[in-house]
Amino acid sequence: FYRIKIEDPIYLLNHDEVRNAWIANYAQKLHVSDGEEFKIIYNKILQALADRCIDNEEIIVPCIDVNNTISNMNLEEAIEKKQFQLDEELRLRIEPVKDDEGALFIPFFTSYEEINKGIMPNTRVNWLVKNMIYDAYYRDDITGMIINPFSDKITIPKAFLKNIIDEVEANKKTTANIS
């Protein structure tokens, strides 16, 4: 069986709020900039994502409950006890979003408000930013990652995700050498 703790909703709402707001702010600025300023802001967003990976930070992600484990449980009882036990495996999958050309992207939302601007699965879980980036890079059906796909959307192609992964891996080696 699998044991999962239900987090306090206030904690989930404020989780990584500062860095998410920072990314959202730069996403808005990116849409009104060009040339060198565009490159600087885009690189700041990529660096913020890399930092979140290195720091093992999480983000709230809408997911699909692949085998309907959550829908088959008593949620009122789970909320009351603040934890629950599953008798079967919980399999979750991040639902990709399509761009105007039909390409699939892993969505990265900077707030609940951004998630609610579109139609997304209603199962929300904490997911490591690093795992999202690795998933977006290594999945063959995915073109990249997209930040806030229903508003100030910013696409991050696989080539840039690879740069983030390289930085995370280099940081692991540096940290291992220091220890």
Question: Could you describe the 3D structure shown?
Answer:
With 179 residues, this protein is of the alpha+beta class. It is built from seven helices and nine strands. The protein has a four-stranded mixed beta sheet. It is globular, with a radius of gyration of 17 Å. The N terminus is likely disordered.
Task: Describe the protein's topology.
Elements lengths: L1 E4 L3 H6 L2 H14 L4 H20 L3 E8 L9 H7 L1 E4 L5 E3 L2 E2 L5 E5 L3 H5 L6 E6 H10 L5 E4 L6 E4 H21 L1
Parallel strand pairs: 6-8
Antiparallel strand pairs: 1-3, 2-4, 2-7, 5-6, 8-9
Helix pairs in contact: 2-3, 3-6, 3-7, 6-7
Give me a quick take on this structure.
This protein is 46% helix and 22% strand. By secondary structure, the protein is α+β, with helices and mostly antiparallel strands.
What keyword list fits this structure?
disordered N terminus; 7 helices; 9 strands; 3-stranded antiparallel β-sheet; single chain; globular; alpha+beta; 179 residues; 4-stranded mixed β-sheet
Instruction: Report how far apart the termini are.
Output: 36 Å
N-to-C order of helices and strands: EHHHEHEEEEHEHEEH
Coarse structural class: alpha+beta
Enumerate the spans where pLDDT stays under 50 for 5 or more consecutive residues: 1-15
Strand order across the biggest sheet? 5-6-8-9
Integer average pLDDT: 77
Compute the CA-based radius of gyration: 17 Å
The percent of residues in helical segments reads 40-55%
Overall number of strands: 9
